[in-house]
Amino acid sequence: DALAQAADTAMYRAKSHGRNSYEFFTPEMVTHSQWRLAIESALRHALEQNELSLYYQPLYNLNRREIVGLEALVRWHHPQWGLLLPDQFIEIAEETGLIDGLGDWVINTACAQLAEWHRMGGKPLRLSVNVSGHQLINGHLLETLQSSLLVHELEPSEVRFGLDITENMLQAGDDVLKTLRRLRAWGANITIDDFGSGYSSLRHLKDLPVDALKIDPVFLKDIPFDTDNYAIAAAIISMGQSLGMNIIAEGVETTEQLAFLELHGCDEVQGYLIGKPMPAEQATRLMRDNGQG
Ligand code: C2E
Ligand code: CA
Ligand code: CA
Fold first, then answer.
1. What ipTM is given for this predicted complex?
2. Do 179 and 139 meet the contact criterion of CB atoms below 8 Å apart?
3. Using one digit for the tens of pLDDT, what is the confidence trace for 181-194?
4. Please, which residues bridge with residue 14 across strands?
5. What is residue 52's three-state secondary structure?
6. Are 77 and 51 in contact (CB under 8 A)?
7. What is the Å distance from ligand 1's center to 79 Cα?
8. Residue nearest ligand 1's atom 20 by CA
9. What are the C-alpha distances in Å from 84 to residues 15, 22, 88, 111, 209?
10. Of 105, 128, 114, which is closest to residue 58 (Cα–Cα)?
11. In what helix (H) or strand (E) does residue 57 lie, and over which residues does it extend?
């Protein structure tokens, strides 16, 4: 129909301009709401048609000098539009409620992958998924995790599961905190993503049911040359560690950043310098090469 056609044209133009953003051309092509409608209806099919996949990005422990985890990042391979990144559809999925189905799919797929890696043997890696506020509030996240593991014949003790949440979710109230405590008691490792960009009060940080902080990559920009960022990143590392948390730096792209993070005792690093997000087969090969398979 006309809407789908407009969206096709829009996406084609966006891609031919080398930009993955619809904002670039929206004014002349399709309105914002038309665009969202097109994404929404395509996303409904995406779940049924197997158009989604998970990519995996390694996390490297600086002390142990080995890969200790992987983060699952969703990708959408649309038959006409090509590869879409989460920034183009997660927000719409959240607003339309499609995130619940998508989130369940992510957890199921991650568990299936864990089961495959578990059968390969070797050291168990932590596999982290990103969760939306919705998933923490609707209350069945733990049940989804438990039943997924069951389906894939994994014991909770055989896997290490990580959940990336954002600072702002912690503001949502006692129910969310209760959910997080249950997840943690079950064995999930909770990380605050993009730490420093939200509004969590430092006063409460010590009481939160959280295992790790992931420094927002904006604070790693131009380190060590940007002295403000240098000071902030160093402070986050030392504060977080004093509170007994694991500190992760993401978006690490340069050897200068890596040297800074090692100097300051950061625990784990993630970024293009270590490895880009990659399809499952490639992640499997990486683990084999590391003696983890
Ligand atoms: P995030 O959780 O902060 O993930 C890190 C993002 O930074 C990823 O973008 C990753 O590809 C990118 N990245 C990693 N290393 C580097 C680097 O060295 N340099 C630069 N410039 N970028 C790097 P991606 O995959 O496009 O994901 C964007 C966001 O979408 C994620 O941010 C996360 O918030 C969300 N997301 C991804 N997958 C899911 C999912 O399954 N569920 C939900 N709810 N959100 C997801
Ligand atoms: Ca994340
Ligand atoms: Ca992040």
1. 0.99
2. yes
3. 999 999 999 999 99
4. none
5. strand
6. yes
7. 22
8. 251
9. 10, 11, 7, 23, 33
10. 128
11. strand 52-61
